[in-house]
TrEMBL record:
Pfam families hit by this protein: Baculo_FP_2nd
Residues of the FP protein C-terminal domain: 166-214
UniProt protein name: FP protein C-terminal domain-containing protein
Keyword Coiled coil: yes
Length: 227
């Protein structure tokens, strides 16, 4: 019996040694897996950063293709109108003489289906300098309306002259406007196709490149994302 007991103890001892080795091996494998998981997290963060950078470059490239283009809204459609003449009339209203040579292309877009608003007039200048000057003077005349271009029938419609934006940049501008209202910012505007925010008169302007920038500003304002 004692002999059998010794044999059983030896067997159990061997099993304990094997289990100890197995546990040790599992710990090593677990440590390696955790290290690999951490490496994957780091690589994932790096890849997300690269993707964000590429998206920003693509967005900037697409917006850059519109760097000489402006959009004019609020001008009623006139039968047999000449879009070039309409643009020149707006130019004279803001004291900026626009010649044929300044205009590369121009046209009036069709309004969205079901909309009672006139189509937007798009004009691309041959020089960005002329485009910037036109936008600047139009914005200085804050009360620019259809009365200034000789339309005397009906109510005076406000005329807006803005930088042309891609769809993605327009969506970002909308988010920035919502953010401005929610967080009591005073200013939101576009500068050469870039979306800008400013808290007040003494704060520095901040460029908003994507929705993530707005999230960071929210966190700086003491809010935390619930997602």
């Amino acid at each position: 019996d004692i002999k059998d007991l010794k044999e059983d103890l030896n067997t159990y001892s061997d099993l304990i040694v094997e289990n100890t080795r197995a546990i040790s091996d599992l710990r090593v494998e677990l440590g390696a897996a955790l290290a690999e998981n951490e490496n994957l997290k780091i690589r994932n963060v790096a890849l997300e950063g690269e993707i964000k950078t590429l998206k920003t470059k693509i967005s900037d490239f697409e917006q850059g293709s519109l760097e000489k283009t402006v959009e004019i809204t609020g001008i009623p459609v006139n039968a047999n109108e000449s879009v070039v003449d309409v643009i020149k009339t707006v130019g004279r209203a803001v004291k900026f003489d626009i010649s044929d040579a300044m205009i590369d292309t121009c046209y009036r877009r069709r309004p969205p289906a079901g909309s009672n608003q006139p189509g937007v007039i798009s004009v691309s200048f041959t020089r960005q300098l002329d485009k910037e000057r036109f936008v600047s003077l139009a914005r200085r005349k804050r009360d620019l309306s259809t009365r200034d271009i000789g339309v005397i029938v009906g109510d005076a419609n406000r005329i807006y002259v803005n930088h042309s934006l891609t769809y993605a940049r327009r969506q970002l501008l909308k988010l920035a406007k919502d953010f401005k209202k929610k967080h009591s910012y005073l200013y939101v505007w576009t500068r050469n196709g870039r979306v800008m925010l400013r808290k007040n008169e003494i704060s520095d302007p901040v460029e908003i490149k994507d929705a993530g920038d707005l999230l960071l500003l929210s966190e700086k304002n003491g809010e935390r994302s619930t997602h």
